[in-house]
Amino acid sequence: MAGLALVSIQEPVAGVDLANLLPNRAEAATAAATPLLPGLLDDVFIWEILVRLDPKSLLRCRAVRRAWRRATSTRRFLLAHHARQPAFPIADGDQLVLGVHLHDILAFDLRAAAKAHLHTVARLDQDFYLEASCDGLLVLSTFAKGGSGCCISICNPVTREHASLAGPPWDFTAFGMYLHRPTGEYRLLLQRGSNRDSPEEQIDCYVFPLGSDQPPRYIGWPDMESVVFNLPIQLRDNLHWYPYYHLSESEQLQSEGKPVIVFDTVAESFRQMHAPIVPTKSYLFEMDDTIGIYCNDGDKNTVSIWVLQNYESEVWDLKYRIRLPVEEIRGQFEGCNDYRDVNLWDVDVVSGDGGVLLLVSFGRWVLHIDTDGKLIDSFYSGLLGLRIYECRLKQSLVQHAFFPALEGYVVNASPFI
């Protein structure tokens, strides 16, 4: 199998201090009369060239000239730069390097202009679970020492900032993060087991503004049975889940009309959205301006993909029914233990370059299948326990005031390597 290179984009850029990127005001008057790039209007250079660079290239440009650093450090520019960045599907996995355990967070670059690559966006010195992705920020969790409670943290892989929520290990788990537009606050959506004020087997939900010194605020619970939430998909200021119910394997494959759960991030309330008749074990995934649901049959022979065509009327369209080349896939995985057992394969659907594609992973290998069911690429990740997520990462250099207010705030230090 032809391997594709692992391209790292998580290393700090030489000569750039991410904690000291604000412009020097004393130099502003002199710089104003000097063009940023001779022969080119400043507006063209800033808003047509610099704003299109990837974060790593932009940081290198900042190190070239102070005037370039000033021009690209304003909040207006950083927000525009973030808006221009592609949204990459996220993955994570583990590896051992010289006996040291490392946890990698990765992104798939699936643009047609370049061969598919798996980029390392962060390398961490301990295990974390990815809980949510929002505006270039990742919500991570890890079990507390002794197995009591959960430690939740926030990181920006590009600026290499990391901070934990204050206090002892929580009995909360994070299952969403969002920008609350009325206040401009970034908030976590939290859940934990039922309390005395809620019916048995209901999910209690709380909201916590990042940087707040107040305890999480109780907001009730969604009207549903006890479920497990996968990572949320954000669209139109709403978070969406197709929940995973506690059912047997045979029950999970039965087709039912379970609703999509929607959380309105402005009103901070739950509602339900109509979903197509799909097996209970189905998954939402993020697309450019809509969402999709995919599922596969028990033998991993066929993957069905539904796309939301009209958000207001909740109309779904069966866009693809893809037959997997099962025997060809087995041939690619040959040599791995239990490679013939399709139940051990992970089949994921991600969007890329305006369309969708299938990623079939097993062991340390990932296969790329197109919508015609053709195996078009394969690569060796080198990672143990590789997991591909349905949400995406849009990298950002935007600075956030809440970070220094969080416990153990660090820049370019552990858990980053």
From TrEMBL:
InterPro entries found in the cross-reference section: F-box-assoc_dom_typ3 (IPR013187), F-box-like_dom_sf (IPR036047), SCF_F-box_component (IPR050796)
Cross-referenced SUPFAM superfamilies: F-box domain (SSF81383)
Boundaries of every F-box associated beta-propeller type domain copy: 130-324
Transmembrane region(s): none
Protein name: F-box associated beta-propeller type 3 domain-containing protein
UniProt organism field: Aegilops tauschii (Tausch's goatgrass)
